[in-house]
Each structure stands twice: as structure tokens, then as C-alpha cells.
């Protein structure tokens, strides 16, 4: 069980397993937030500290970025479509030993929406 929280511990999660991989995205918001995203199905994550968050939505408003209202740490994103079974947890809030074991993936969210550490299938 992995436990994570913002700096002041007002917003926290328990997650069944450590992330095998995390995503570093270069889109205009993720690069500014400086986050590493660990993606999970909703059932694998339990919110254990339920402090208030402020949210920010942009572009197509498909996800809401949450930050702790007290300390300002970006904690997670949630899908606005209730049918989408996915949540992004800011892995930088996990203990360093946890994310040190994860593969860091690089997503070109700014242009192609593809992982740049995989071969491009269009180029084959």
C-alpha cells in the first residue's frame, strides 16, 4: 500500500500498488506544474485525507486538476466524465524511494499526444 499526501497532509491517498511507470508530460500545464503522473483505475485509489481542493480546467475541460487549498500542492486530476475509469495522482507527492523504482515515460502532450520514448508507428 502506497500512501501519498500534499505538503500539509490535508489531501491524501492510499493506492494499492506503487506505480510501475510515471508520465512526464510537456503540455503547457503539466510542464508548469512540474508533476509526474501515476495513472490508476478509480478503484485502486482511496482518498484518505479529504481536505478541500481548488480545481482548474482548461481546453476541452475533460479533466479537473486539483490542488490543496491550504498548501497549494497539485495533488491529482480527475475526469469530468464519470464513465472514465482513470485518475492521475501526482507521483511527486510519493516518497522518493517509491518513484525511484518507476520507469519515467515522456509524453509529448504539447504536439503529438504520443510517448516519445516509443517507436513512432507512422514512421514504420
From TrEMBL:
GO function terms (MF aspect): carbon-sulfur lyase activity; metal ion binding
One Pfam family cited in the UniProt record for this chain: GFA
Superkingdom: Bacteria
Positions of the CENP-V/GFA domain: 2-122
Keywords: Metal-binding, Zinc
Entry similarity comment: Belongs to the Gfa family.
Name assigned to this protein: Aldehyde-activating protein
Species classification: Bacteria, Pseudomonadati, Pseudomonadota, Alphaproteobacteria, Caulobacterales
Amino acid at each position: 500500500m502506497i500512501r501519498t499526501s500534499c505538503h500539509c497532509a490535508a489531501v491524501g491517498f492510499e493506492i494499492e500498488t506503487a506505480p510501475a511507470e510515471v508520465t512526464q508530460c510537456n503540455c503547457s500545464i503539466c510542464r508548469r506544474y512540474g508533476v509526474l503522473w501515476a495513472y490508476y483505475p478509480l478503484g485502486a485509489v482511496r482518498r484518505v485525507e479529504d481536505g478541500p481542493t481548488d480545481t482548474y480546467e482548461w481546453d476541452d475541460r475533460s479533466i479537473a486538476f486539483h490542488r490543496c487549498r491550504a498548501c497549494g500542492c497539485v495533488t491529482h486530476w480527475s475526469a469530468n466524465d464519470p464513465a472514465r475509469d482513470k485518475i492521475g495522482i501526482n507521483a511527486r507527492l510519493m516518497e522518493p524511494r517509491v518513484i525511484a523504482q518507476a520507469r519515467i515515460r515522456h509524453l509529448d502532450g504539447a504536439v503529438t499526444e504520443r510517448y516519445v520514448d516509443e517507436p513512432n508507428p507512422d514512421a514504420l
